[in-house]
Specification:
Elements: E1 9-16, E2 23-28, E3 31-36, E4 48-51, E5 56-59, E6 61-66, H1 84-94, H2 100-116, E7 119-126, H3 131-147, E8 153-160, H4 166-177, E9 182-185, H5 193-207, E10 211-215, H6 226-235, E11 242-246, H7 249-252, H8 255-268, E12 271-274, H9 276-282, H10 298-303, E13 308-310, H11 327-337, H12 343-351, H13 355-360, E14 375-378, H14 386-389, E15 394-398, E16 401-406
Parallel strand pairs: 1-4, 1-5, 6-7, 7-8, 8-9, 9-10, 10-11, 11-12, 12-13
Antiparallel strand pairs: 1-2, 2-3, 5-14, 14-15, 15-16
Helix pairs in contact: 2-3, 3-4, 5-6, 6-8, 11-12
The protein binds zinc ion (ZN).
Length: about 425
């Protein structure tokens, strides 16, 4: 890794999103000192000059919905029906065999893949299914978080079990007192959703932490818990502090009902994360012929000013056997699934993996003077081609230092 902190670095001819002309980025002491438009610039004033020759520079990518503890358990754990319920059952049956060492190994693999693809901030959900598992997963995550601290900012969400009893709640509270950042869960899968939500909000308000929950991950139009989530948010005075992941039944229900719910989300500042890979895999399993796409109403939410971020969700596990911790791949799937394909929408999709989730996590992920010099450089020169190219040639920078780089190499023989 290069040690450039005290150096004055000039990145020449960087292409930034929504800018017509390339710019020069000046970095010093981990920070972007200035962004210069002048064509003539004196290289002698800088300790190091790198000419990007018009390459795209995106803010460090933010993956705000991962499941590091489950990643890379496929094909050891299978899901023959391809449904959410079988995935949950299969993973829970395997949890006793997930040692701390195995958790650290799988989590580390995910984190390294995320970093090399340009992710510099991530949030992971961690299962809270049994007392034993909670202890192991908290220990494993704290080891991984410490190991990768110089390279990536990480946050954790402890998922409350759907039918959490008092003993399990005690373990969740122990986890909150031992390094977990947020509280989560999947209350729509509970036998008593209202009670489960009540416990989640109670834990959150006790520890003054934000909430990030899975909501209505279903293609049943009758499943509609977002109004209840909004009600709880209002009652707890938690406006702006609740994230709802998935919300796929919004697409299954009729337009008028969905738009009423979207209005409520906006009013309570409850924002949404869409997980296109896992949901296109898990949902629509009973559809014959034309299979529904399984995404939430990404376009409508965005049009109504509910913030939408795109996350990886599960990586090579029974919930989703594909994925490689590459947000550009998820952005492409979202663009296809939600048909966000105009030039403006393509750029919006890129914001959904960078500036939008960064803001939702109260981070500072922008390329602007005074901000942390954290970004990914792509070997693509036209912002309209970022999704199409999916370039593997990338450089990840954090706090003014190059963390790693990848280069596609094709060798022709004969
Ligand atoms: Zn999830």
């Amino acid at each position: 890794m290069e040690r450039d902190i005290a150096m004055k670095i000039l990145l020449k001819n960087a292409a930034l999103l929504n800018e017509k002309e390339t710019k020069h980025i000046v970095i010093q002491d981990e920070i972007i000192q200035s962004i210069i438009s002048e064509r003539m610039i004196d290289d002698q004033l800088f300790d190091k000059v790198i000419d990007l020759e018009g390459k795209i520079v995106l803010p460090g990518l933010t993956d705000m919905h991962m499941h590091l503890d489950k990643s890379f358990t496929y094909p050891t754990i299978r899901n023959r029906s391809g449904t959410l319920l079988e995935a949950i059952e299969q993973f829970q049956a395997f949890e006793p065999y997930m040692t701390t060492d195995l958790l650290v190994k799988n989590m580390s693999k995910s984190v390294e893949r995320a970093i090399k693809h340009g992710t510099t901030t991530l949030r992971t959900h961690l299962d809270g299914g049994t007392d034993d598992y909670i202890k192991r997963v908290v220990e494993a995550f704290s080891i991984v978080k410490e190991t990768y601290k110089p390279y990536i900012h990480m946050e954790s969400v402890l998922m409350c079990d759907f039918n959490m009893d008092e003993a399990l709640e005690k373990s969740v509270r122990w986890a909150m007192e031992n390094g977990m950042d947020l509280v989560g869960g999947a209350p729509h899968l509970s036998e008593d959703t209202e009670h489960n939500l009540e416990r989640i909000f109670d834990i959150a308000t006790t520890y003054d932490v934000d909430i990030d929950i899975h909501v209505d991950e279903s293609d049943d139009p009758e499943m509609s818990h977002l109004p209840l989530v909004c009600e709880f948010t209002k009652r707890a005075d938690y406006s702006g502090r609740v994230i709802a992941g998935h919300c796929t039944s919004l697409s299954a229900m009729e337009e008028k009902q969905a738009l009423t719910i979207i209005e409520q989300l906006r009013e309570e500042d409850v924002n949404v994360v869409t997980l296109p890979g896992a949901n296109m895999y898990l949902l629509g399993r009973n559809d014959k012929g034309t299979i529904r796409r399984g995404l939430t109403r990404v376009r409508e939410l965005d049009e109504y000013n509910v913030h939408v971020a795109i996350g990886s969700d599960n990586i090579q596990d029974p919930f989703h056997p594909y994925g490689k911790a590459d947000l550009l791949q998820m952005a492409l799937l979202c663009s296809y699934g939600a048909q966000m394909t105009s030039e403006a929408q393509m750029l919006r999709v890129l914001e959904m993996i960078s500036t939008i989730p960064s803001e939702l996590m109260n981070r500072d992920g922008e390329i602007a003077p005074g901000k942390e010099a954290t970004f990914v450089i792509l070997d693509t020169k036209d912002q309209k081609l970022v999704l199409a190219e999916q370039t593997t040639t990338r450089e990840t920078w954090r706090k003014g230092k190059k963390i790693c780089s990848m280069k596609e190499c094709v060798k022709w023989e004969g």
